[in-house]
Amino acid sequence: MRLRNLFLFGAAALAIASPPSADTEEDITRENTYFNGKKVPPILELTPANYKEELKKSKFLMVKHFSPWCGHCQEFLPTFQTLYEYYYTSKPVGKDADFTGFYDFRFAELNCVAYADLCTENKVAAWPTTILFEDGEPLVTFRGVKHISVLSGAVEDALEKVKPNTRPKTLELPEPGDKTSPDAKAETEKTEKADAREKGSEKELVKETEKEKETETSTAASADASTEGEATPKKTYTVNYNTPSQKVTLKPSNPNPKGLSVPLTWELFQSMVTLTQEPWFVKFYAPWCHHCQAMAPNWEQLAKEMKGRLNIGEVNCDRDTRLCKELRVRGYPSIMFFKGGEKVEYEGLRGLGDFVQYAEKAIDLSSGVPDVDFDSFKALEEKEEVIFLYFYDHATTSEDFLSLERYPLSLIGKAKLVKTRDPKLYDRYKITTWPRLIVSREGRPTYYTPLAPREMRDTRMVLNWMKSVWLPLVPELTPSNARDIMDGKIVVLGVLNRENEDSFRGAIREMKSAANEWMDKQIQLFQIHRQDLRDAKQLRIEEAEDRGDQRALRNAKNIRINMDRSDMKEATFAWVDGNFWQRWIRTTYGIDAKDGDRVIINDEDKRRYWDQTSTGNPIVPSRTSILETLNKVTVNPPKLKPKLTIGVIEKMFFDIKMTFKEHPYLSMGCILGIAFGLFQWLMGRTTRRARSHFKLEEGVGMKESKPSTLFGGSSNTATKAD
């Protein structure tokens, strides 16, 4: 989530104040600078009056979007200025031509406080943002403070594109603020030494030599001291997108210098977290929350462990309710990782070891998507169980790379994401279209099937696919990943004893072998089913053509081959430490981990499981035992009778609940039908009672009238007789 529009009033005030433009006298009188002894004019300032015109003047224009009072922009100022001066004074290889005219490449800057509308048009949401335009269209976008080598990589790509083979193979870039490039400085020193020798200034030459030796000695001593003491971590940065990765070693920034958790208010959160590219690990708590109080010591210790490596913060939601509401904090404590205005919620355990492990991976992934070649990827496979590999080529656009940069945060603690343009990896995975995304699990590739550019850039679609494949072939079942593994799947769960190393390694090897064979079989069945559907469609087309029925032919050609496998339950593999989860295994499955390694095939959605083969023997961690049983329980209905993980009465209510969930309309219809039938029965019973009462009253009246009739009849008879 990106928090924006925080400085509305300041921007409006400065905009009204009529800031200086590039055409004013103040801009004309700006001082020139000097680099490598050459005069460099002031950098071009863009305004609404000259913006469109300047974009059209040159093929390439690199624009820095900034705010004058932004701390990060002030930090980035010498980097961009030195980059501009370095390239302005550079020359093509083997040609005596000025840089700007030969390459048609210029640099500029845009004040986003003074001209907020222009920055909004370029979708600038944070400062500083550097955009390289080609023919007036954005080519590459860099958000935040970037090292000079990163920006230089994008410049070199553009220069090589328009004028091939005119750039040096290696570049020695100056440090921000330098007024001389390293190669020019070395050339100057050589010239001075040569002059000193010619003049016979041996004393000066000796002094210079002694100084160089002293410098080398002090450098070696400091290196030895740093080796003996605490090692300072080195950061590597990828220089560019469209050339093989070149790495440079930088002086790392100093996050969390005191090893403390920083209390963050709404204002501090905006300035230190949202509008920066610095990674932050932040907890949201309430002082009265008992769980927050219990977690507090671990959080303080985490801050000490991450001293100089990762920023740690905390927000009191009783005090800063606005911030917690904006971030949709639903409970306490909530823990989130932030970088560049993007966030991901931590869902793991709250132990110190869990925090440190997550933070280590967050530091690694938040540094960006590294480039790999064939050898480095092979080495990475030995350390990582799950690796997402993004293939790109020279035609991959900046939009593709921007969408790629959104994924690492969601993969923290899950998998590793890298990119490559190594032809050897193309051949290994048979890649013929770019960009392409695959996941390698235990060396087994699974491909992201959509190939359209829109689908490759669809963050939600790609993340949903990543979530479905980011577990290893045989992961360990833990409280943090239990839902991902168990829900909606049939799980082959190995109950193993980790302490017996030989038995444990053998069981894992057997389970991985069974998992690979099962996946191969499912792929074959999928391909056979798809081919059957294609053959059926072709038969209908041929039949319609033979009859000459154009309507039937159109209908046959419009048949879509639906390969949606949502109705088929997936079978996955996992293992659990039988000693650690002994009580849960015994109460749920009735298995004692002390009896040895066992395998359970669990169907969590229906609260049932299988722990025996067709012969009545326990399922053991064996490829044969697992596959033989799995084939019989995945058919519908299962060929083996399952056991229940819940009681009979509880199972009855569970089935009713699941019926309502899976068939809500049918269930409501049944309930309404039963209710209507019950109502009719009650109404009929009431009506019958009323009728029987009426007949009874009618019968009583008739009996009482008979004597009156007889009496009247006898009276009449008597009268007649008289």
From TrEMBL:
Superkingdom in the source lineage:
Eukaryota
Q: Where in the cell is it found?
A: Membrane
Q: Pfam families recorded for this chain?
A: Thioredoxin
* Primary location: membrane
User: Where does the sequence pass through the membrane?
Assistant: 665-683
Indicate, by first and last residue, each region the UniProt record lists as having compositional bias (Basic and acidic residues).
161-216
Q: Gene3D superfamilies, alphabetically?
A: Glutaredoxin (3.40.30.10)
The annotated topology with respect to the bilayer is:
Single-pass membrane protein
InterPro entries under this entry? PDI_TMX3, Thioredoxin-like_sf, Thioredoxin_domain
Annotated signal sequence range: 1-17
Which keywords, in A-to-Z order, does the entry hold? Membrane, Signal, Transmembrane, Transmembrane helix
Thioredoxin domain: from which residue to which, for each copy? 19-160, 239-397
Keyword hit for Signal: yes
Residue stretches of biased makeup (Low complexity): 217-230
Q: Decide whether keyword Calcium is in the record.
A: no
Report residue spans for region: Disordered: 161-239
Protein name per UniProt: Thioredoxin domain-containing protein
